[in-house]
Amino acid sequence: MNANSNSNSNVDVRPGELRFHWGSALDDGQKKSAERYDFRVLDLEGAIDFAREADKLGVESLLMAQSYDLPDPLPLLGALVRETENVKFILAYRPGLLSPTLFVQIVNTLSWMSGGRIALNLISGISPVEQGYYGDFVAHDGRHERSREFLHVLHELWRDDQPVNFEGEHYRIAQGQLGLPHYGGGRPKIYVSGASQIAQDTSLEYGDCWFRYADTPEKIAQEVGPLLARGGRVGLRMQVLARPTREEALADLAEVMGGADEAHREWVAQFVAAADSEAVKNSFRLADEAGHGWMSPVLWSGAVAYRGGPALCIVGDYEEVADYLMRYKAAGVSEFIFSGWPARDEMQHFFTRVLPLVRERERAAAAADAPC
């Protein structure tokens, strides 16, 4: 047996089962959700150790985010793929920062370095202020159109070995070609993020799954129906806090929310006010409507004001969390990217205690539906 094998592995997922990823390979040891991360120092050895832990736990993928206040994911990926065996990495990147040809060249190289353990999360950008930091002043709709052009060229470069010619509003490629193909042929799995209709359409045309921020299962079922009817897949980006008992979960929620950094909350509010992302604004609207409290008996919105849309959090005992995930599955959700506080501890709770319960429920449901 492989040294990294785990009886609760999420890697060998059966058809129709939920897929679970984790939100980052960077863990600075922060224990509070209501304070600002400090990324002024890169702890590379800590990131490697965290990725190895994810590998051991059977985490399918780690999301490598791209933001001005984070270390750049590309060099980090070059290190992490060489220090792990099974865990995959989802590279989040924004069209406009690199040419599509250079981007494919980088991804192809990483695919060979990792044995194909690379997926992509294409994000058009959420803040014109932050985009401006990188010299990018394309407006919201233009960024989404640029993403479509970017993905079109990516697909052409991965489709065959013929030179690619393309002329659009944002990119012009003349006889584009690369020597190194994607490892094993084909292309990486592509997740497309965003809340707008154009983001959904882009995921259907160029991606494998549409990723969005969460809501209650009932609201998700209402909103994703049209996309599912067109053959799409849906994933949620959110938080989880699971403990042996609900009392322990609530006590730990109070602990991670304690000592709130109100200056950081105000900074987040200003960031949201300047954002032009429908996903970001909608997540804060939902939290406001819930009074930054409970949106359902197990769905907590209080950390959104400090952490943004991904911080909508499932809170409860292991059984409650597993049951709630099955409700999301019934609503049409296929995948999750989770985060938690502290990141490593919560990842261990989820993959050793909650995931086995989800698999039990899924396999019992499959057996009940099987023909006699």
Keywords:
disordered N terminus; 11-stranded mixed sheet; TIM Barrel; 13 strands; about 375 residues; alpha/beta
Could you give the topology of this structure?
Elements: E1 19-22, H1 44-57, E2 61-64, H2 73-80, E3 88-93, H3 100-114, E4 118-122, H4 128-133, H5 140-159, E5 164-167, E6 172-176, E7 190-193, H6 197-206, E8 209-213, H7 217-229, E9 234-243, H8 246-257, H9 262-274, H10 278-289, E10 294-296, E11 299-300, H11 304-307, E12 313-317, H12 318-330, E13 333-339, H13 343-369
Parallel strand pairs: 1-13, 2-3, 3-4, 4-7, 7-8, 8-9, 9-12, 9-13
Antiparallel strand pairs: 5-6, 10-11, 11-12
Helix pairs in contact: 1-13, 3-5, 5-6, 7-12, 12-13
GO molecular function: alkanesulfonate monooxygenase activity
Organism: Kitasatospora viridis
Keywords: Flavoprotein, FMN, Monooxygenase, Oxidoreductase
Describe the structure.
The chain is α/β, with parallel strands linked by helices and 372 residues long. The protein has a domain at 19-236 and 332-361: TIM Barrel, CATH 3.20.20. Helix content is 45%, strand content 17%. It has helices at residues 44-57, 73-80, 100-114, 128-133, 140-159, 197-206, 217-229, 246-257, 262-274, 278-289, 304-307, 318-330, 343-369; strands at residues 19-22, 61-64, 88-93, 118-122, 164-167, 172-176, 190-193, 209-213, 234-243, 294-296, 299-300, 313-317, 333-339. The strands form two sheets. Strands 1, 2, 3, 4, 7, 8, 9, 10, 11, 12 and 13 form an eleven-stranded mixed sheet that branches. It has a two-stranded antiparallel sheet with strand order 5-6. Helix 1 (44-57) runs parallel beside helix 13. The two termini are 34 Å apart.
